[in-house]
Design brief:
- This protein is α+β, with helices and mostly antiparallel strands.
- The chain folds into 2 domains: about 5-110, PAS domain (Beta-Lactamase, 2-Layer Sandwich), CATH 3.30.450; about 115-340, Histidine kinase-like ATPase, C-terminal domain (Heat Shock Protein 90, 2-Layer Sandwich).
- It is about 40% helix and about 25% strand.
- It has 10 helices and 12 strands.
- It has helices at about 10-15, 35-45, 45-50, 65-70, 110-160, 165-185, 200-215, 235-255, 285-290, 305-315, and strands at about 20-25, 30-35, 80-85, 90-100, 105-110, 195-200, 220-225, 230-235, 260-265, 270-280, 320-325, 330-340.
- The strands form 3 sheets. It has a 5-stranded antiparallel β-sheet with strand order 2-1-5-4-3.
- Helix 7 runs parallel beside helix 8 (about 235-255).
- It starts with 9 loop residues before the first helix and ends in an 11-residue tail after the last strand.
- The relative contact order is 0.07.
Length: about 350
C-alpha cells in the first residue's frame, strides 16, 4: 500500500504516549508513522517533526533492514549510534517487531550511560592486568636506564666540545625524560606525604627542566618560578610525577608561541605548599572542564584518561586541594595546595 494511503489515527496510537519506553511506528519503506513523547525526547525533536521522516535516510539509524529481515520475526537487540540535532552523540539500544502487514514497531532507549560503564569496566580490567605487571616492568627498565645515564655522563666528561658532545647531551636529556615518564606512571598512586622531608623545590625544577626541552622543540615558551624552599614532608618522586602529568597535559593544550609556567611557593605562613602550572593554550570547554577529573575521560586520541584523575586523588588523599581555572582560547591554570603539617591526631581516651 502506498504511504499516502496509510491512515494513522491518533486514537489507534494514543496508548503509546503513555508508555515510559521510546516507541516508533514505521512503515515498511522506513517512513515514521508515529513517535511517542519519549522517542521525541531522546531523538531531540518533537513528535510532529519526526513523523514522515525516514528512519534510515533522515535519521541514519539503519533499522529498516533489521525490521524486515527476517520478515515477521522480532529482531534481537541492536545498538545504534545517533547524533542529536544539538550535536550530542548517544547510543541507542533498539528492538524491532512486526505490527501488521506493512508496519513495524521499534522500541528503544538511550543506553549511552550503560555503554560508557561497560567500556570503563573493560578499561579497568585492562588497567588491572597492566597494574599487576607494571611495578616489575618499571623496575627492570629503571636499572638499565640508570646504567645508560651513568655511561653517558662519564662520556660527557671525556669527550671534547663538538657535535659528538652535543649528541650525547641530547641522549642524556631523552634518557632523563624517559626516567621522569616512568616516575609519572609509577609514582602517582603512592602517597604524597612522606615520613622524611626532602628538597621538593629541586624535584620541581628538575622535572620542569627536562620537560622544557620538549617545549622548546615545539616552540612553546617555558618559565620556571620555583625559589629555594625548606625541606618539606613530601615524596619527591610523587611531586615529580605530579609535575610531569600536569605539564604534559599543558604541552598537549599548547601550540608554538604559547607559554607554560611552573610556580611553587609556601603560603599560609609556611603551612601550605602551593604548586601551579599555568598555560596560555586552548583552555577547556565547559563539558571538558566538568569531566576532566573523571576516570578514563580524555580528549586525546591516544590518552588514557587516568593522569589527572590520579593527580587529583593523590592530592585529596593528602588533605590537599587541586583547583582548575580555565577559559576556552585563553588557557588553563591548575593549582595544587598541600598542607605541610599533617592533621592533628586525637589522643585515644583511657
Amino acid at each position: 500500500m502506498p504511504i499516502a494511503h496509510v491512515r494513522v489515527e491518533d486514537g489507534e496510537y494514543a496508548v503509546l504516549d503513555a508508555l515510559p519506553a521510546a516507541v516508533l511506528v514505521i512503515h515498511a519503506d522506513g517512513t515514521i508513522l508515529r513517535a511517542n513523547r519519549r522517542a521525541a525526547e531522546i531523538l531531540g525533536r518533537s513528535p510532529a517533526q519526526l513523523e514522515y521522516l525516514n528512519v534510515d535516510t533522515d535519521l541514519a539509524l539503519d533499522l529498516l533492514g533489521a525490521c524486515v529481515a527476517p520478515r515477521g520475526v522480532a529482531t534481537d537487540r541492536l545498538e545504534r549510534p545517533f547524533t542529536r540535532p544539538d550535536g550530542t552523540q548517544i547510543t541507542l539500544g533498539c528492538s524491532c517487531a512486526p505490527m501488521g502487514r506493512d508496519r513495524y514497531v521499534v522500541l528503544f532507549q538511550d543506553i549511552s550511560r550503560w555503554h560508557r560503564l561497560r567500556d570503563e569496566r573493560d578499561q579497568l580490567m585492562r588497567q588491572a592486568v597492566v597494574g599487576e605487571a607494571l611495578p616489575s616492568i618499571l623496575h627492570e627498565l629503571k636499572n638499565p636506564l640508570a646504567a645508560v645515564t651513568a655511561a653517558v655522563e662519564v662520556l660527557l666528561e671525556e669527550v671534547p666540545p663538538g657535535s659528538t658532545r652535543e649528541q650525547l647531551h641530547a641522549i642524556l636529556t631523552e634518557v632523563r625524560r624517559m626516567k621522569l615518564g616512568f616516575e609519572g606512571v609509577g609514582a602517582v598512586g603512592r602517597e604524597v606525604r612522606a615520613a622524611r622531608s626532602a628538597a621538593i623545590d629541586l624535584a620541581c625544577r628538575d622535572s620542569f627542566r627536562i620537560l622544557a626541552v620538549q617545549m622548546q622543540a615545539a616552540g612553546i615558551h617555558a618559565h620556571c618560578d620555583v625559589p629555594d624552599l625548606p625541606l618539606l614532608p613530601f615524596d619527591p618522586s610523587v611531586i615529580r610525577a605530579l609535575v610531569f602529568n600536569l605539564v604534559t597535559n599543558a604541552i598537549h593544550a599548547c601550540r608554538a608561541g604559547d607559554t607554560i609556567a611552573l610556580h611553587a611557593r609556601l603560603a599560609g605562613s609556611g603551612r601550605v605548599f602551593e604548586l601551579s602550572i599555568v598555560d596560555t593554550g586552548s583552555g577547556m570547554t565547559r563539558e571538558v572542564y566538568d569531566r576532566c577529573t573523571e576516570l578514563f575521560f580524555t580528549t586525546k586520541r591516544n590518552g588514557s584518561g587516568i593522569g589527572l584523575t590520579l593527580c587529583h586523588r593523590a592530592v585529596v588523599e593528602a588533605d590537599g586541594d587541586l583547583a582548575i581555572e580555565t577559559v576556552p582560547g585563553v588557557g588553563t591554570a591548575v593549582t595544587i595546595q598541600l598542607p605541610t603539617v599533617g592533621p592533628a591526631r586525637v589522643a585515644p581516651r583511657d
